[in-house]
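Hey team,

Sharing the Methyltransferase domain-containing protein run so nobody has to redo it. Sequence (240 residues) first:
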Amino acid sequence: MPPQRSQHCQIAGGRSWAAADRHPDVKHPVQPGNIHRMEDPTARTTATYDRIARVFASRSENLDSAFRAFRARFAAALPAGGRVADLGCGPGRDAAWFREQGLSPVGVDRSAAMAALAADRGVHVALGDLRRPPLAPGSLAGLWSVAALLHVPAAETVPTLRAWHAALRPGGVLGLSTSTGDGEAWEPVPHDEGLLRWFVHRKPRTLLAVLADIGFEVREHAETATHRTWLSVLAIRREV
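Structure output:
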């Protein structure tokens, strides 16, 4: 495990289970060039989350202080009442917290079961794809996505981030946390290898360069290690 560089964003929640990485034999590597010969990885990952939604939600509530601080810095950068989208919102944990801070959140998730849990928490939620979020251009003061980009196939990274950039107004804030590394692989849900999720691990330098090329100004970034190594980023959409 690489040394911990920062304590800014040590993820304790989000779309990843620590137990998955305690079993060295759980990964099923697939070469990126072969991805289209298999079933749609996004559809299968969504189906998995539909199956595990309630258990996942129950395991996503214990947040460490570093993650809480990162989330608070993101929220503090937004105007009072600002509209913020949580892409890949899952059961609505963070969107509900944003509402408590006086923001106006909307959650977006492909999983109907996850969206239903978010709605049960009083979160306004749209069933949709974070790669093409159902959001009007320039409509957001903030865009938040934690442990969700890691399920987007590598070939779709740039168009996905362009769509996020378009949804933010100039000066809008991006809060992003995703896994680091290299490569794409199927990973079974712990203790149930019949349920798979597609994981995509990105090199920090490459992802930061993509964000800059698209039109984001990175204000903060940090790598931290828990059961995975994470890159957390706060960035703003540059004025145009």
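The chain has one domain: 27-72+81-237.

Ping me if you want the raw files.
A.
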